[in-house]
Amino acid sequence: MVTYAILGVDFGTTTAMSLVDLCGNLMFYSSRRNGGIKFIVSTASSIAVPVIVAVDVLKPPRLSKRIASFFNAVLVKPDHNLLLREKISLARGYKYSNDHERDAIASAFYAYKRYRRLFDKIGHDDVSHEIKKRIIKGESHSIHQAIIDLKQ
Question: pTM for this structure?
Answer without folding.
Answer: 0.93
